[in-house]
Specification:
CATH topology of the largest domain: Nucleotidyltransferase, domain 5
CATH superfamily of the largest domain: ATPase, nucleotide binding domain
Order of helices and strands: EEEHEHEHEEEHHHHHHEHEH
Structural class: alpha/beta
Largest sheet: 5 strands, mixed
Number of domains: 2
Helix content: 40-55%
Strand content: 15-25%
Strand order of the largest sheet: 3-2-1-4-5
Number of strands: 10
Length: about 325
């Protein structure tokens, strides 16, 4: 897309997850000017110096890219793991973009994804990417959740969980029958991605690689599912776990339409089929390709318009 004149006020939307960060720039009238991707990030990285430096580099890279399209004057960011109880991320964005923190709004990524699909009170969103969560924003704009507690506690049905269940299954089978992997399509595909069948390679991958990298092993599980019953069982269980999130929301707030979004739904049809089978028949389910970074950019553009209107007042 053509760049705006340098210095012209523009708005930035960020949709950040553990695997990938997507961004989009919008003009004051909410027209998308440019979009792209960057390395994945989460709010949990603010807990240590190394994580903070990684965040700073990603945000600085975004600022440099955005500068060729105009002057970023408003930011709306949805970031995995953000709980709203810290100023670290808004402070860091303000520093990297050289702008007032009052022009920056940060929330967890699922809130923006919800608003990209539903109006408040209209339905439930089940989002399954690297992790998993169900979200509901009610008519009073209060955010409610089921799941989304992180990979150490749960996130069942997400990409990381699928990968972990597969690796657990693989190595338990090896405990009982050494070299069982040679007859397992799933195991062979997993070992190919990891780099070999030695335990040390699996250990280093699982305990030293990022959550997003581990989640990508779910691709091997999906690729093996049609010929490996163990892989198919994991995908069916993933759908069942995602359905649990939707049922939890319906039990709390009543039956409403459910939308499924996130990359897990693209892995294999068995996941969505299992999800449908484990939902009550009266609850409608539709799949959605969420473009949350575009939604975030449009929300940032509205904030930009408000900022400009206030500056124009005498």
């Amino acid at each position: 897309m053509p760049a705006e004149q340098p210095g012209k006020p523009i708005a930035l939307g960020i949709d950040a997850g553990g695997t990938q960060t997507r961004w989009a720039l919008a003009s004051r009238d909410e027209q998308i000017l440019a979009s792209g991707t960057a390395a994945g990030l989460t709010a949990l990285q603010t807990d240590n110096a190394e994580g903070m430096e990684d965040l700073r580099q990603i945000f600085a890279g975004l600022a440099a890219t955005a500068s060729s399209h105009g002057h970023v004057c408003s930011i709306r960011a949805g970031i995995t793991g953000f709980g709203g109880d810290a100023h670290t991320l808004p402070d860091l964005l303000a520093e990297c973009f050289a702008m007032p923190q009052s022009h920056i709004s940060v929330s967890n990524d699922i809130e923006i994804a919800f608003l990209d699909i539903f109006k408040p009170g209209a339905g439930y969103l089940i989002y399954a990417g690297t992790g998993s969560i169900a979200a509901y924003i009610d008519e009073n704009h209060v955010f409610h959740r089921a799941g989304g507690r992180g990979y150490l506690l749960d996130d069942a049905g997400g990409g990381f969980w699928i990968a972990r269940e597969a690796m657990r299954s693989l190595w338990r089978a090896e405990d009982e029958h050494p070299d069982h992997w040679k007859s397992s399509e799933m195991a062979k595909r997993l070992f190919k991605l990891i780099g070999g069948n030695d335990w040390n390679l699996s250990r280093d991958f699982i305990y030293h690689r990022s959550r997003g990298d581990i989640g990508k092993l779910a691709l091997a599980v999906a690729a093996a599912a049609n010929s490996d019953p163990a892989a198919m069982a994991i995908l069916h269980d993933a759908g069942k776990e995602l359905a649990r999130l939707g049922v939890a929301m319906c039990s709390r707030f009543g039956n409403k339409p459910i939308a499924l979004s996130g990359r897990v739904q693209e892995l294999h049809p068995a996941i969505v089929e299992s999800l449908r089978q484990n939902l009550p028949p009266e609850i409608s389910l539709r799949q959605s390709t969420c473009q949350a970074h575009f939604s975030a950019a449009r929300l940032a553009a509205r904030q930009l318009k408000k900022i400009n209107d206030e500056q124009d007042q005498p």
